[in-house]
Every structure is written in C-alpha cells, then in structure tokens.
Amino acid sequence: MSALPVSLPTPRDENWKYANLRGLARARFEPSAPPSSETQARVTAALPAPLDGFERIVLIDGFVLGTPVTTSPSSPTMVNTIETDRYFFELNRRLRTDTLRLDVARHQKRAIEVIVVSLGTSHPAVEIALAEGAELSLVERHLPLSTDAVITNLVISAVVGSHARLELSRITQASSKAQHVETIELHLGEGSTTKVVQLTTGAAASRTTAFVEHAGRESALEWHAAALGEGTQSHDAYVRIAHSAPGAKTLQQFRGIASGRSRVSFNGHMRVDATSPNAQSDQSLKCLLAGPEAEADVRPQLEIYTDAVKASHGATVGKLDPDMLFYLLSRGIPEESASSLLKWAFVSDVLSRLSNPALRAAVEHSLERVLPGAIAARSGT
Amino acid sequence: MTENAQLQDLVGRGYQHGFVTDIESESLPPGLDEDVVRAISRIKREPAFLTEWRLKAFRHWLTLREPTWAHVRFNPVDYQGISYYSAPKAKTDGPKSLDEVDPKLLETYEKLGVPLHERARLAGVAVDAVFDSVSVATTFKDRLEKAGVIFCSFSDAVQKHPELLEQYLGSVVPHTDNYYACLNSAVFSDGSFVYIPKGVRCPMELSTYFRINAAKTGQFERTLIVADAGSHVSYLEGCTAPMRDENQLHAAVVELVAMDDAEIKYSTVQNWYPGDENGVGGIYNFVTKRGECRGRNSRISWTQVETGSAITWKYPSCVLRGDNSVGEFYSVALANHCQQADTGTKMIHVGANTRSTIVSKGISAGRGQNTYRGLVKILPTAHGARNFTQCDSLLMGGRCGAHTFPYVEVKNPTATVEHEASTSRISEDQLFYCLQRGISEEDAVNMIVNGFCKSVFKELPMEFAVEAQNLLAVSLEGAVG
Amino acid sequence: MLSIKDLRTTVGNRKVLDGLSLEVPAGEVHAIMGPNGSGKSTLAYTLAGRPGYEVTGGSVSYRGEDLLALEPEARAQRGLFLGFQYPVEIPGVNNVYLLKAALNAARKQRGLPEVDAFEFLTLVREKMKIMQMDESFLSRGVNEGFSGGEKKRNEILQMLVLEPSLALLDETDSGLDIDALKVVANGVNTLRSPDRAIVLVTHYQRLLDYIKPDRVHVLARGKIIRSGGPELAQELEARGYDWLLTDAA
Fold first, then answer.
1. Is the CB of C90 inside 8 Å of chain B's CB atoms?
2. Long-range pairs, A339-343, Cβ under 8 A, ≥24
3. How far apart are CA C59 and CA C41, in angstroms?
4. Is C109 part of the contact surface with chain B (CB cutoff 8 Å)?
C-alpha cells in the first residue's frame, strides 16, 4: 500500500474536534479477504424482508455479491477540502476491493437497496451516477451481524446529473463495539433535487464526513440526519455544503439525542460563494441531553461571500421540555414511556422524511429498543 | 446619489481622527529581546516580581507561534521592526496634574472630542488618557478617592498598589494565554487600573481613551478592573490612531474580576484607523479581553462597537465561575472596504445556574470580511446553566463576506443553550418603504442599519450610544451603491 | 393634479399595465376598483416608483412635473404618499423617528426648517387621537409586531402627519373590522381638501360607504375599462365584474 498523503486526524484538527478516533488509531488497516461461501450463506439467511419494488445488492466486507462492479476506483471529485478531512476517503481508495457502481441512464428510474455487512475491517465503496433527468431511490442499510470490534470505512460518491433526482435513505446501525467511519460526496447538477435522510445508531464510535457541492444552477438539497447515542458511544458528523452556482438551495436539519455518557456532535458548515447569488440556506440543529454525563456539541457554521443570500440557522441543546413531560404524566403515561415519546417526537422531524413507508416502519420498529414504550404510547395501547 | 459621488464624499470625509500630533517623544529603538523587556520594566521602576513576570512571559512567547485559525489574512508582523516603548517627553517627573500636561496633548484630546479639563467634561465621566505607551492624565481623581475608588494609570498602580497587582495581574489572562496576550505580558507599557472596594457603587462612569500617535510603534496596554464584593462599575473605552500607510500593532489585554454580587459593565467604541479603501495601512487590533465572575451572583457585561482597525482579532469573554453569575456580550462589528474582523466571545459556564447572553450584529460592506466566532461551553458542574445567542449578519454589496463560526459544547444535561443566526442583505421592501416616505437612500440605509444594531446600542451609556450611531453612519459611507 | 397617459408597466417579464390612462383633478377622491390581478397594486407601486416596476411606455404628469423622472424619495418629498397594502416592519427603527425623518425630508425639499421636537410630538399626538391609537405606539418600532389593523392605522397616521398632495391608498380597507374601518375612513376624510387628491385602490364597495368618491374607475387587464360616478360602485357591488369584462372583450 502506498503511503497516505496525510496522517490520521486528531482532536486538534478543526473538523475532528469532537470525533472519537481512539478505536481507529490502534487499528491496522489492510485489504479484507473475500467472504467464504459459508459466510455468504449466513448473511443471506439473516437478511431482512426485501422492500417492495427495490433491487437488492449485498456488500460483505466491501465485496459486492453477484453484481457487476468496477474494481478500479474512479477519480475523486471533491473540491476545496482540507487534506486531513480526506484521510479516510484516501484510505478507502487504496484499500477498497470492489466499487459498487450504480448508473441510472437518462430519464430512467431505479430503486435500489444496498445492504452493507461488516464482519472484519472493510472499505466498502459505492459510486452513483445519475444521467440527465434520471431518478434513483437508494436505501442503504447496515446490518450489525457481528458483535466483534469490526471496522467499516465506507465511501459513497454521487454525481447527480442535471434535473436528476436522488433520494438517499441511510440507516446505519452497528454493534456496540464497532467503529464506523464514512465519507460521502455529492456533486449536484443543474436543477437537480437530492434528499438525504440518515439515521445513525449503534457503534462504539461513528463519524460521518460529507462534502456536497451545488455545482449546477438551482440545485436543491435536503439533508435530514438523526443520531442516537447511548452508553459511551460517540456520534460525530461534519457536513460541508458548498453553494457554487446561482439559486442553490439547502435545507438541513439534525436531531441528536445523547443518553447515558454518550457524545453526539454535528458540525454543519454552509458556504455560499460569490458565484452563487440567490442562494438559500436553512439549518436547524437540535440536541437533546438525556444522560447525566452526556455531551452534545453543535456548530452551525455559515461562510458567505455574496449579499444575494438568505440564510437562517438555529441550534439548540437542552433537556426534554419539563412542561411537555408533565403534561404527558398528568395524562397517565408512565415516565419512561413519556420521555421515550418525547424523544420519539424529537427525532420524528427526521424520520418522517423517509418516504418509503415500509422502510420507515422497519426503522421505527428497530428504535423500539432504544426508545422503549414510544410506539406503544404513540398508538395508545 | 451615484456610487461615484458617494465615493468622493467618502474620500472627502472618511476617517476623522487621522491627524498626527507633532510632539517630542522618547522611544526605545525598534527590536525585542530580554534587554528591551528589562528596559521597559526599569523605565517604569517596577518591583522585582513584575520584572520576573514579564521575563517569564517573554521566554514563553519565544516558544509560541502566531495563531492562524482566524478568518483573516494580513501581511506578517515584523516584531523586530517595532518600537516597544514610546512616550511624549515629560517636562517633569512623577505624577502629573492636568496643569503640567503638555498643552499639545490636551489639544489632541480636545480634537478627538475627549476634553481632559474636568470643568469642560460633562459631569459624571472620569477619563484616563493613554497616549502611545503612557497614560498622560487621569481626571476626577479626588472625587473618586473620596468614594474609595482607585482609578489610575497602570504605572501609578505599580508604584502605589503593588500588592493588588501582584494579587490580580494575570489571574484571568495568564501570561501563557495566547500569542498576543503573552507578548503583551512581556512588553505592556501602561493602561488603566481600577479597584472598586466592597459595597461601593462607583459614583461616575470611568473611561480610558487610547491614542496611538508615534509611527513604527506598537501599543500594548493592559487594563485591570477589580470589583470587590457588592460593588458596581461602568467603564468605557475609546480608541483612535493617525492615518498611516503602515500597519501598526495594537495588542492589549483587559482583565476583569467580579467578586460576590459585583457588577462590571465594560463598553468599547473601537475606532482605530481602518486603513484606506484599498486596504493600505490601518491598525492590527489583536486584543485579549476576559472577565471572570469569580463571586456568586456577579455580573460582567461586554458591549463593543467595532468600526475601526484593518484587522480585528478580539473575543471579549466571560468565565462564569460563581454560582448564579451572569455574562453578557453585545457586539456591533462593521467591516467596510478591505477591513477584516474576526470577533466574538467565549462564555465558559462553570458555576450552577450561570446565565449568558450573546447578541452579535455583523455588518459587511465593500470588500469587508466579518466573522463571528463564539464558544459557549457548559461544564459538567454548571447545573441549570443557560445561554441564548442571537447572531445576525447584514451584507451590503456583492463582494463582502459574512461568516458565523459558533461552537456549542454542552456537558451538563440540565443546561439549555439556544443559538439563532441569520444572514441577509438590507430588505428591499424596507428600503422602498423609507424612500416612499421621502427619506433619502443614504438616510434610509443608516436608519435600517441602526435599527438592526439597536439591541446592542441600547446597552451603551447614553453619550456613547449617540457616538456609536454617528460612527456607524460615517463608517458606512460609500457602502450604498 | 395627476394625469396618466397610456401607461405601460412590466413586472418581471409580465406586462401588467397595458395602456392605462387616468385624470385625477385636485380636490377629488377617486376610487379604483377591479378584480384580483387586474393591476391595481401595480398602478400604485408604479406611481410611487418601486424598483422592479418597469415603465415601458406612456407618461405621468404630477402637479405639472414628469413624475416618472423622479426618484421614489423625490416623489414622496413632493407630496405623493402611498399607503401600503402590506406595510413593512422595520425592527429597531422607532415609529416616531421614521415619521420625523420623513416630515423633515419633505420640509427640506420645500425650503422649510426642521420641525421642532416638541411641536412635532404635539402634532403626532393630535393625529393619533384621530386614529384612536395608543400612546405605546410612540415607543414601538416601525410596524414591529403590529396587527394587520394597527399597521393600516399607522399608514393613515403617517399620511395625516405628512399631509400629502396626492394620497394613493392601496387596499387600506383590507383586513379591517368595521370599527377600525370607520376610524381609518374618518382619518382619510379629515385630509380631504380642494388642493389635495386621494386615490383609493380597493376591492370592495364597503370602504366607499364611508369615503364618498367623486369618480369610480374599473381597472381590468391593465387598463381602465369603465369610469363613472359613485353609482358605478353600487352597480359593481350588485353585479360583480363579469359583465364589464365580457363587455370589454
């Protein structure tokens, strides 16, 4: 393996201040071995019910099962990024085995579900290319099949062509010892529409690094993310969105709940260049602290180089609203259910953006463990 | 009015405090080493502890590098090219009465609108005037002494109250704090010292007026304000400098200490020379200001109107150590032409039920770059802490920038932190509404901008608020096109 | 007072006024009525000089001057007042301050000295009484946090203080309950005089029960398609606009 251009980020690096990389600092990164046929069979048996109307592709330790792939990574499109921020992306490029390539031709529609399974150390890579007017609904689900301290270093790159539509629903769940780190890059073409909905739970530590560029005029992006931390987990995200073309629009919201001694952080950096007049940027970052030693860190950042702009950003960190809690208690709902219900309502801002009802139901069901009693309280049973 | 006519108007009027006072001064030759540090200490006849403190700071400074994280770009400072001490030649030694002050200096302050003659001064404001490296006059000393208030130049305090200095100096901003504060600790020349004894409400507003005059000098003043238990003081600070092509360094340190139930209100109208419209010249304003609410129920409030300087690097902060203590930061920062401002605050919540409020209004025009940078940190001990931050930016013209870089770090689940930010240009609807009422575009813009800043201006003492509004209008000239 | 000939205005790329002509002599009150989207507000904004309302043809003479050649603030200083349909909120700018600045700008244009602060406040208080406005209004920001009705009263108050020669009132009656409507109408009526003209832009006949117009005009498809006396408003109330539109087509 050729030497990486930069070294592992540390908390001294501006955009890694809140990331917990201790587990990764000790790791040995090597290309993973292909899964045996027994492993493949075990994984296949554990797969969840398929989503109606979706093609399904399974990745085990970065290997794509039974689908055409390219093995040579294509060139990265990231612009203006700090070298350190690209560390894991570069690592993935050097160590990835397969690249899952998803193309949608002009004015074609596809719906694809990608299941990602990590059993050791893996570097899964997905490249998406939407031609003009193409539509892709992509569901990405991570299955925590191993209880070992697995390491996943995922890369997703997407080029969204002019007037194309991308909906990316990302459900990342990992086992409690897992280290999860991912880099997402999106290149948005003229008049395109992109919606990302992301739910992060599980893992000892997770980190999302995302670079989005509004490259074409009038491109629109919605970014809805939620993270739930328990125990000593750490969930950190850095999302940098550059508005480089006129009329670019971004709506971003983050809802984080830190329980126990966990740490949830979100660093949302919006940049509006002088080349992007009439840009609009809305950001709402909210964190709930639900544990005595929990910690939340938010950074609603704005960097603006044109006066033809409308940007409004808000961030809050706090506890559950005692008035709301009391209201529910006074209606006879037990305290644990009441607080779960309020937390549920809090993340619903994000979950309600999942447009596939079956997926949403599955996700809500999976949250029952983290928010006990919420579903029951909600349905009144 | 056409853009051209406005520009001409601007050049015609522009910075109004840019004159140079022709006065004989005594300066150390440019350059910085331990001997220079010792020389400053010797000139000031300082006790050994202070000389040692300076040397410790200097040695530490040698190990530091200039910070690069701020959103500003500027030519490197040649620290060996600066004279670290410059003072108008005194006719007599020792403490001066106003009658002994050089008439040229008195005239300078008259021109700046800060008459030092007590009888000419509006009642209720005592002034300490700092000219380059030294304090030239402090007014109303007698009346303040009667109340038990110590208000004097830092040099006087060194001679008369060394025990207070030894106790408090560097206790909020240690000599190792940051590059510029560390440099200041080594070479600071003068500044103001205020001590308000227990239970005393300072009978008048105190103010310091800073003036850089000499060329190729830096100004490194140090202000220390101690409000003992149950006391109250309001302090104002104003700054100007001549127009010069070179960039001059101003690296000040302000330390505030508020004991139980004490209250300090610190207001600044900063109007250092901002450089010309092409970015030539202007002051580099690298200032460390920090207050510590050491006692229970104490309160420290920073209000700043930053219209000057080529580069502003300044984060007046509060460490809220005492339970129920309150920190406030109200700021208007303007960056016009080629000015760059990176300013904001840090609110560190340590004690229980501590509260902080941040209101920041940034205005960017021309090619100006205005950055709000703020940290709200709630430590695990700060039960029930609250912060509210409102951070708004106004952009005027297509070549300026407005940036907001907040850090919110919360480690106590009973805390509540709210941050709101907005960025936009002046609303065309508002502008047209004013025009339709017959108000000229320039007046309408000033009116709307002043309205935008109102929640900060109302925190300023009355005379300062009026000055701030006028200053904003002058600084914005040429920004409308 | 006001003479509009063949006025054509585009907004964005849309032609809105398409050859509109109108004469309003001094001393008269004219009502301009018409269906939604017919160009009523565009006429008001064009006369006031709002940016984005581009005149592509025709002429407007106001007290013998070429109105269209004047900047918006110059038009106002010469006595043209627009009562906004949606008065703008300007946070932090005091109501009284704006009003005083506006009055002084007009006085300066006429070569008069600035108004004395005490006299001014007396004047405002007197007009506030007519508009039945609360003392607290004096300390509030321009339209900041006002209800719809308060904003409209504030518009008329400004008009009473500024005493314009030509008042254009754009849907001043919309969003008012009957009591507020009477107050607003009373305010407008106090301003009627032989050397002033008032143009009411309105959707409904209701306001005209309280402010008797001398002439009523129907604006549709960017031009005046019918003019008449007060009885025209009654007829519109009874029959709607459709019969006129089919007539005109």
1. yes
2. A339/A290, A340/A371, A340/A372, A340/A373, A340/A374, A340/A377, A341/A373, A341/A374, A341/A377, A341/A378, A343/A257, A343/A288, A343/A290, A343/A371, A343/A374
3. 18
4. yes
What angle separates helix B48-62 from helix B179-187, to the nearest 10 degrees?
140
The pLDDT-based confidence of B120 (bands split at 50, 70, 90) is: very low
Arithmetic mean of pLDDT over chain C:
90
Which token pair is A236?
């950190």
Q: Which residues pair with B193 in a beta bridge?
A: B152, B224
Residues C53 and C55: their CA atoms lie apart, in Å, by 6
Quick: pLDDT tens for A2-19. Answer: 556 678 899 889 999 999
Please report the residues numbered 296 through 315 in chain A whose beta carbons come closer than 8 angstroms to any beta carbon of chain B: 296-315
Q: Note the pLDDT of residue A67.
A: 63
Residue C72 in contact with residue C49, Cβ under 8 Å?
A: yes
Residue in the structure block whose two tokens are 């201040």: A17
Cβ pairs bridging A and B (under 8 Å): 115
Task: Judge if ipTM > 0.85.
Answer: yes
Verify B-A touch: 3 or more CB pairs within 8 A. Answer: yes
Residues 6+ apart with CB under 8 A from C202: C31, C32, C33, C171, C172, C173, C208
Note the pLDDT of residue B323: 98
Q: What are phi and psi of B291, to 5 degrees?
A: -120, 145
Q: Cβ atoms within 10 A of the Cβ of C237, count?
A: 14
* Minimal Cβ distance to B422: which of A293, A305, A311: A311
pLDDT in tens, C70-97: 998 899 999 999 999 999 888 888 888 8
Q: Alpha-carbon distance B190 to B159, whole Å?
A: 12
Across the interface, whether the CB atoms of A295 and B410 are under 8 A apart is answered yes
| C154 reaches B (C-beta below 8 A) | no
Q: Least CA distance to C107: which residue of chain B?
A: B438
Residues of chain A with confidence (pLDDT) below 50: 1, 75, 380-381
Q: Which residue has the tokens 């695990």?
A: B380
Q: Are B447 and C71 a contacting pair at CB < 8 A?
A: no
Question: Is the confidence at residue C202, as pLDDT, over 60?
Answer: yes
- pLDDT reported for residue B324: 98
Query: Which residues on adjacent β-strands are paired with residue C65?
Result: C62
Burial class (CB in 10 A: 0-12, 13-18, 19+), A273: buried
**According to the model, what pLDDT value does residue B136 have?**
66
Question: Pairing between strand A151-160 and A125-130?
Answer: parallel
CB C4 within 8 A of CB C68: no
Residues 6+ apart with CB under 8 A from C102: B434, B437, B438, B439, C76, C158, C162
Most confident of A18-27, B175-184, C33-42: B175-184
The predicted model gives B368-390 an average pLDDT of 97
A41 touches B: beta carbon within 8 Å: no
Q: Which residue has the higher pLDDT, B461 or A2?
A: B461
Distance CA C200, CA C166 (A): 11
Q: What is the rounded distance in angstroms from the CA atom of residue A156 to the CA atom of residue A198?
A: 13
Under a CB-based contact definition with an 8 Å cutoff, are residues B308 and B271 in contact?
Answer: yes
Among the listed ranges A145-149, B24-28, B37-41, which one has the minimum average pLDDT value? B24-28
3-class SS at C36? Answer: coil
Q: Do B437 and C87 touch (CB under 8 A)?
A: no
Domain boundaries, chain A: 14-319, 320-381
Asked if the model's pLDDT at residue C46 lies above 90, the reply is: yes
Select from B432, B438, B455 the Cβ nearest to the Cβ of C51.
B432
pLDDT of residue A280: 95
Q: How many CB atoms lie within 10 A of CB B7?
A: 14
Q: Check residue A84 and report its DSSP letter.
A: G
The pLDDT of residue A77 = 54
pTM to 2 decimal places: 0.87
